[in-house]
Each structure stands twice: as C-alpha cells, then as structure tokens.
Fold these 2 entries.
Entry 1:
Amino acid sequence: MPERSAVASSPSATAASRIHPAIGEGTTGADAVAEILRREGVEVLFCYPVNPIIEAAARIGIRPIVVRQERVGIHMADAYSRVSSGEKIGVFAMQHGPGTENAFGGVAQAFSESAPVIVIPAGYDSDAAFTPPNFNAYLNFQHVTKSTEYVTRVESVPAAMRRAFTQVRNGRPGPVMVELPRDVLAEHLPHDASYEPVPIARAGPDPSAVDEVAEVLLAADRPVIYAGQGVHYAKAWSELRELAELLEAPVTTSLQGKSAFPENHPLSLGSGGRAHPRPVADFISRCDVLFGIGCSFTATLFGLTIPGGKTVIHSTLDPADLNKDLEVSHALVGDARLTLVALNEALRDRLAGKARGRSAAVAAEIAAAKRSWLADWRGKLDDDRTPLNPYRVIRDLLATVDVPNTIITHDAGSPRDQLSPFWECVEPLSYLGWGKTTQLGYGLGLALGAKVAAPDKLCVNVWGDAAIGFTGMDFETAVRERIPIMSVLLNNFSMAIELPVMPVSTERYRSTDISGNYADMAIAFGGYGERVTEAHQIIPAIERGVERTRRGTPVLLEFITQQEIDFSIFPAAPDGHRPRP
Ligand SMILES: Cc1ncc(C[n+]2csc(CCOP(=O)(O)OP(=O)(O)O)c2C)c(N)n1
Ligand SMILES: [Mg+2]
C-alpha cells in the first residue's frame, strides 16, 4: 500500500458543494479519522493512550489533552460541547479493553444528561472483537449512547464518521460512539475518499399546534414557564425572555436549563432541582398552566416534582419525551428557538403586540416570596462560625467572583443542593447543571472542559470531600495541561448527605467518615492550594484564588465546613402547603 499524506494534493471532488480535497488513497484509518475531525472543526482531542488517533491528531495540529482517567476525559468533552451549545463537539479517544471499560461512567453520565459528545474507542483487532472476554464497545455501550457503530473496514471510516457527526449535531443531543478496531485504524484507504462537514437541520413545530398553545397560554390565570437545556442548545435565550415578557409569566428552569433565563429578572423564580428557592415551589404548586420548553420533564429526585391537576404544555425536540413521566395536554415538537419564535409571533398577534399589564403584580409576588425565603436562610448565609457553614462560603463566592464571566458547576451530594438555589445566574451557559444521574466527581471534568472551551471565563466546580475521592487525581491534569480552573472544596470530613441513612454504620464503624488534606494535595500537584477555616478568610482566599487562575495556575480552595444537611427543599403538595426546611 503506498504511503501518502492524509490529504491528496489535487482535489478529486467535483460537486460544487465540496470544498475539501479528497482524503488520499493510502491514508491510514487513524489519519483519516483525524482529518475528518479537523474538517468538523475539532481543535482539541480529549484522550487517554493508547489510540493511534492521538498521534494522528497531533500531527495535523489538533491538541491532545491527556487526562488521568477516561471518565474525566469524557466529562471534559461533555462540558466543552455544552459551553458552545453543541457547535464545537467534544471528542474523546481511548484504547481498546481497559480504556474503553473504564470510560463507561463518563459515557453513561453524558447519556443521562443528553450531552453531545463523540467517543472513539479503539477496539480489539476485528478477528477477536467478539471473542470473550474481550470488551466490545459496540455491544456494551448500546444502552448509554445515542448511536454506537462498529467499523469493519477502513474504507467505511468516512461514512461511519459522517453518520456519527450527523447524529451528534442533529436531533436530541447525546453521546455517539464509533468503535474502530486496531487493525482498521492501521489499514490504508484503498482509494481516495471524500468528507465534508455534515449539515445541521432543525425542525419547527406544527403551526396549528402553535395556535392552540397560544390560546391556552393566553387563557391561563397563573401560567408558569419551565425551561430546560433545549433552550441552551437552540440558543433561544432572547426568545425565552420575549415569551416571558409577552405573557408576563414567571420562569423557572430545570438544573440543566439553569442560566437559560436571567435569574435577576423580575419574572425569574430561580431554578428547579432537588433544592430550589421557595418561589419556585409556590408558583409551581399554584399554577394552572405549565409550559415546558426544551425540557424532557423527566421524573427525577434532582428535578421538580410537578403536582397533579395542571394543564401541561410540553415543547420538546424529542417526541419520546411526551407523556414519558408527565401527562401532557398539549405538545409542540421542534427546536426550542423555532418553537419560541413561532409562539411569540402567535402571542403578539393575539395581544396586538402589547402585554396585558400583569407583570408588575407578578413581579411583586415573586419579589415578596424571594425576600421571605432568603430571610429564612439569612442565618446560614451569614453564619460566621467555625467550622464554616457551606452556605456562607457560597454567599461569599457569589459576592466575590465576576458572576457574568464565571461558569460554575456543582457536584453530587450536599454541594449541589447548597449551591443551585442560591447561585443567581445572569448570563446564558454560566451554570452547568446536571443530575439525571449524579456521579460523584463529575464536576471537576465539567469545569476543566468549560475552561478549555472558554479560557477567558473563571471556571469553578464546587464539590465535597467524597466527590474529590473519585476524580481528584485529575487536578493534576489541570496543572499539566495548563487549564487554570478554581476548584472549591467543601471538606466536612464526611459523606454528610448520607448521615441520616447510615446512622448505625456511622456510630459503630464510622463508615461515613472521610479524611484528607486536599489543599496540600493541590500544592503537591503543582497547583495553588489553600485551606480556609475562618469566615473572615473566605473572601480574601477567593480573591487570591481568582488572581492565581488569571496567572495560569489551577487553584483548589479547601473550606473546612460543618456537616450541614439542611436544604431548601419543598416537597410538592397539591394544596400549596409546604413544611419549612
Ligand atoms: C459514583 C457515586 N457513588 C455514590 C453516590 C451516592 N452519593 C451521593 S452524595 C454521596 C456522599 C457525598 O459526600 P460529599 O461529597 O463529601 O458531600 P457532603 O454531603 O459531605 O457535603 C454519596 C455517597 C454518587 N452520587 N455517585
Ligand atoms: Mg463531605
């Protein structure tokens, strides 16, 4: 087989739409994949050796970012995609066997969050790929991917990659996998191949359904808008705001949708999640019509519980969401932006372009509910005792960082429920929310991937001492790959959120205790670490941390905290009555 460069010297494509030269005969499978990634705009390859695509990518100027474990690399790719609303796709490559086995958690998390990533495992040589006990990605990842493909011949590589990018860029986002056996990666293309970036197609809603929904919304007394991450992927932020202002309706979001609507807007209730501001619970319980846009309405402990007896309008990209967990009365299927554009137009027509003058009263009701909720939490937010109260750390973090230029994420455990209700987002995609599944340790990879995608932002992950046990070694990735994030660790030497469910094992065997000095760990890795024990040290430590990130050093601020497990949780009750937290 002749050795030729990945790109043939003379373009063989004749169609007018083709702008790229042929991928030349003799190109290896690995080089063909790298060239296709480059054509699809991929600039970084999250990866862990051994996979020859890493070398092939580096040869053509795609930066490999090598992690400490596969799971974290996929989390990074996931955030990288999210931060650009899926315009820049995060790609992860790893080796056959152990590398692929170890990637399972990352892919499963991306699947549950509907995050668009491309995962490219090398596979065992094709003659042994289906022989036990060899791990076969195609067989094993079926249920945690949007699509999985096993490539049998090098000449099938362009078509397989075309299918993968088409899947990842269109329809419901999700992880897409292409397993490439080692022999296929090493084989040479027997003839020239073509590859152009795939088209992106968006579908809008049925116009008659839009009219129907406009009528229902205008007839509602107390409508509430619930926005999911579809608004982020469709970049429908201004259209969402227009809808809220036209309808004069309050807005809440899922955790994934958090930051789709400015939370300092008079019509914002704050975001949903296991914990949420009381106005969210009040308005959801008393609404007559609930309009979900770009959301799945998935029943989850980490989202709002929608009480019965509501007229639910569900607008989603994926009809599989409809009536999955929540009975819906009206449905719109389509891209969130196209849907909102059409709906806003229908509403404007019916309102003769003018809102009905409800917003002052709605805003006043929200403001009063927010004030009384915050007053209930003042004691914890202002707490200056030692060990620190995590709510005080979050209060000071919010007051110190440049919020519009910060991208923050939580972790599983108490930090999620402590951060999400109180963190007020003002810019789209400034919060990476998650929780359809809640793998401890996800937040670090998200912050790292966000920082790679948005180097000018301050990228922060807030996590607990159990979470860091899962992925903490990848703080070294931050140092080595020069990704200056700020990691905020709430160390209470415990899996505090589990204390109520593990009283006997805790008392008899100390089973929920954890230990560690993580500031020292960060320093040992070459980062900046600081342990903070006193309330008056919180803000100066954050300021020092932010400054270090500006100078290019990853930071880990370790706050020694109380085992605080009081959360802003309001179990949904149809009568609107809710126990105090
Ligand atoms: C991979 C994984 N295993 C188990 C869990 C269950 N889990 C959720 S939170 C938690 C403990 C959290 O402890 P920590 O991070 O220290 O936060 P704290 O509640 O102490 O503030 C556990 C075991 C999980 N979410 N993910
Ligand atoms: Mg803890």
Note: The pocket of thiamine diphosphate (ligand 1) is lined by residues 412-415, 438-440, 464-467, 490, 492, 494-498 (CB under 6 Å).
Entry 2:
Amino acid sequence: MKRRKFISNITLFLLGNILLSGCDSQKFLKEKINCSSCKYCLKVCPRGINIPYVFEIYNQYVENQNRDLFKESYEKIPEMNRPNQCFSCSLCAERCPKSLNIPFLLEKIVQEYSNIK
Ligand code: SF4
Ligand code: SF4
C-alpha cells in the first residue's frame, strides 16, 4: 500500500515537472493589453499620461522581450507624464470602450520597468 502511494506521488511530481518545463514562465506572466488606441482616455487624464503609447510599448515588449528597447521607449516619456504619476482616479477607465482597468495595468507596467532598469 505504502509502495503504491509512493509511486503515485512520484508520478504526480514528474508530471508536474513535465508540464512546467513546457511553458515559458516569463511569457506566461505577461499578456498583451487589448488597447485599440482610440485615445478616449487621453482627454481625461489629469496627469497627461499617454496611456495608449505606454500600452503599445508594453505590448511590443511582451512580443519581443527586448528589455533595452522597452526601457528606451519608456524613458522617452517626460517624467511628469510617466505611468508612475498615476494616482488611480479611474477617469480614464470610465471612458475606455475596452473596459480596461487602466490604473492597475499602469501599475503593472511601472513594476516591470522597475524590475529591468
Ligand atoms: S487613473 Fe491614472 S491614468 Fe487614469 S486618468 Fe487617473 S491619473 Fe490618469
Ligand atoms: S480608452 Fe482604452 S482602448 Fe482607448 S486608448 Fe485608452 S486604454 Fe486604449
């Protein structure tokens, strides 16, 4: 009985490792943002954050995993308009036809930038 349980545990362990080795954890965690660049959000952001631009450079990064390019594109944004200036008023999200949780996504992008700079 003990031997059967041991074999069962080993099988589960091996199966888990096979499944994990089949996925790229980096890509798994990063998904493209479904922004249509309609720019409705731009008109209302009190901090002047160019949200579609930020999402565009993030999407490019998800696709090509090019950290240097992402960093360079991010740093082209004037400091006063960078995503870290977002104070989560959600005015942008109210206008977004894609119902994106923009403040949350911006925070995620700020974290990503902090990780690679
Ligand atoms: S939640 Fe952030 S990005 Fe959206 S309008 Fe407010 S300050 Fe701008
Ligand atoms: S309103 Fe939504 S879909 Fe339109 S540009 Fe802004 S984030 Fe993208």
Note: Confidence is low (pLDDT under 50) at residues 5-29.
